[in-house]
Amino acid sequence: MASLVKPATSTTEFDAAVAAGTKAVAFFWASWSAPCKHMAQVLETLAKQHAGITYLKVEAEEVDDVTERFGVTTVPHFVLLQCKGCSAGSSSTSTSTGFSTSSSSSPSTAAAVAPPPQHADVTTRIKSLLSSSPVVVFMKGNAAAPYCGFSRKVVDALRSVGVSSFKDVDIFLDEELRQALKEYSNWPTYPQLYVAGELIGGCDIVNEMMQSGELRQLLQEKAPAALQPAAPQQQKQGTPEAPRCGFSRKRRAVRQGLKQYSQWPTFPQVFVQGELLGGCDIVLEMKAAGELKLNVEEMMHRMQATA
């Protein structure tokens, strides 16, 4: 059976679908969000029960204009719309609801529910943010709860190369900053990664650099303080030829003695009831042939019989 929830893949489709009815429910979702999958099923059930309402699903990070129009910053998120006049381009009232917050507003003002404090020079603010940390990510959401999959990938890339701390800036909390940064960086999309005040790029570039090893190398050169300290190397007590402590000397003696005892030159060595079974290759060959369990049982039985 065809879905009763219509996908709106563009601003034009969204506006046309809303104007075609008297009431509409817009469901903002993302493919990476597990709760969205559950809420999609709930919405299908509601659509069957209330046939007079238009149900739309909007992929939040793909239809940016609609997402920003209603100030959507988390998913899943629902916007309830009532069309006035029901003609293309007509106005509408809306109630925007997410899991943790709900508010009533018009589409033109939804993004300004909690306006950020105004500053005289947004460029100064950008430079201040860039100087606040060696690594800065301007993203949708924050490091703990990225709003989009692309922002999540950049956060994961930084963590995978050992970045222990960085400055995350949610661009949805400051519309003036969000628009100005595009001009400042000459980069039209988010997320944006900066290292030592210099733009590195967006999601694709960061992930390519992570996979090639260039990202960690760049961080080591320009922002070493942001990286986790390297794991301490084990301190050796001398060399095998000239051990400097009794413990190292004893371990070497045990290794040499075991080779002589077993007449087997390498390690590991597997013993069953005190009898040598073999090394890595032999054990793996027995396992592959299905003989390992049988051989172990035979050795244990033989040793128990002679005990």
Shape: flat
How many helices? The count is: 11
Can you tell me the CATH class of the largest domain? Alpha Beta
- The number of distinct β-strands equals 12
CATH topology of the largest domain: Glutaredoxin
How does the helix and strand content classify structurally?
alpha/beta
- Strand/helix succession: EHEHEHEEEHEHEHEEHHHEEHH
Mean pLDDT: 78
Strand content: 15-25%
* The CATH fourth-level homologous superfamily of the largest domain: Glutaredoxin
Q: Please tell me the total number of domains.
A: 3
Summarize the structure.
With 307 residues, the protein is of the alpha/beta class. It has helices spanning 11-19, 34-49, 64-69, 122-131, 149-160, 175-185, 203-212, 214-222, 246-262, 280-289, 292-306, and strands at residues 5-7, 23-29, 54-59, 77-83, 92-98, 102-105, 135-139, 167-170, 192-195, 198-201, 270-272, 275-278.
